[in-house]
Amino acid sequence: MEKTPAFGMTLDDWIEWMNERGQPKFRAKQIVEWLFSKRVTSFDEMTNLSRDLRNQLESDFVIGLLPSVRLTGSKDTTRKFLFRLHDGRLIETVKIPANANFDGERSGRLTLCVSSQVGCAYDCKFCASGLAGFTRNLSAGEIVGQVMSAEHETGETIRNIVFMGMGEPLANLTNLTKALTILNADWGMNLGARHMTVSTSGLAPQVEKLAKLPMQIRLAISLHGATDEVRDQIMPVNKKYNINRLFDSLQVWQRHKKQMITFEYILIEGVNDGLDQAAILAKRAKSLHAKVNLIPYNTVEGLPWKRPDIPAQDAFMNVLTKANISATIRREKGHDIDAACGQLRLQEETAEGIS
Ligand code: SAH
Fold first, then answer.
1. 10 in Cβ contact with 144 (< 8 Å)
2. Domains present along the chain, CATH in parentheses
């Protein structure tokens, strides 16, 4: 039988597991302390638990640290981990340096961009992740495991998490919710809810469900088009939930959460970079008091899309700033490693013959 990653267990799950074995509640607390505070890498090191209990843990669970197949980038730049899962699948996790976090704020806090699925079923036309299709959801343990493993490998503390790696987090809502709980818990990774951002291509009903989770997490919407006409061309999800439906769900979100919503907007030459789109985007952002994060497109091998030149990017940005929208433009260097999600994994899986 498949062993469960211990990182994916909540304190309540441990209490139940202990209870089934006639063990007192406080043993559950001891386990999470070993895992998240003392950071042991084997059950054997949990020396305040009996030998018998440690053996039982060993037979039901793995700790959940992920071996890294490859690490690109250097300490102070964007670093990309390629982690191997128990079934041989690969996922990417990207560490973004403190002075260039995802929305351009100089927060001085390390951000980790995590994956939520192996592959993606949403087929956005510009994205590398969808190219190989969808394989499976990540478990809560594999999501938390990315953060624990990145800290383990670098010795640094991650302060922000963005769900902008591979996959559509809202299509994996149950595991996402559990992972958020563990990341946020004081007995877990103790990350502030405000430091966790879930990004979605626009799964409106799931936005409404997540809105009701009593945790002040942030939401980013991968908008990439200000009208249905443009969005329909590049994001098939828009045919299911169009912009009006999506915005209805964002109203629901705002009734439950205090943080501003962020619109992610990739600039793709000749597709969505017209100033008419910028004007509509400005109106839409204003209607929700949302921030806009412009991202010049990262080219993907095998896809025809290009980024607009700098003057065209600036012209688009100007329309937003003139309309008093809080907007940033991501202009970091090193697209080679920072490139679109999914690329590194595709290369490696192709090389290894996994598909
Ligand atoms: N499925 C979720 C999260 C994963 S994608 C979502 O759509 O939000 C994370 C972000 O990277 C999204 O905004 C996505 O649109 C963007 N992205 C995908 N391919 C890109 C590319 N080639 N260049 C720049 N951004 C890209």
1. no
2. 4-62 (1.10.150.530), 68-352 (3.20.20.70)
> By the 8 A CB rule, do 336 and 295 touch?
no
- For residue 170, how many other CB atoms are within 10 A of its CB? 23
Count of beta carbons in the 10 Å neighbourhood of residue 350: 11
Q: H/E element holding 160?
A: strand 160-163
- From residue 123, how far is each of 33, 188, 201, 213, 244 by CA, in Å? 41, 34, 10, 27, 21
- Pocket test of ligand 1: the residue of 176, 198, 201, 222 to mutate, having most ligand atoms within 8 Å of its CB, is 222
User: Backbone phi, then psi, for 234, in 5-degree steps?
Assistant: -115, -15
Which atom of ligand 1 is found nearest the CA of 128? Answer: 19
Q: Is 246 helix (H, G, I), strand (E, B) or coil?
A: helix
Distance of CA 112 to the CA centre of its chain: 8
Question: Given this model, what pLDDT does residue 345 score?
Answer: 55
- Closest by CA position to 115, among listed 350, 354, 344: 344
Bridge partners, residue 92, by sequence: 82
Q: Measured between alpha carbons, how far is 205 from 223 in angstroms, rounded to an integer?
A: 16
CB distance 173 to 210 below 8 Å: yes
- Ligand 1: residue whose CA is nearest its atom 1: 168
Q: Which residues of the chain, if any, have pLDDT below 70? A: 74-76, 98-108, 332-355
Structure pTM?
0.93
pLDDT value at residue 135: 96
- Could you read off the pLDDT of 317-333 as tens digits, one per residue? 999 999 999 999 987 64
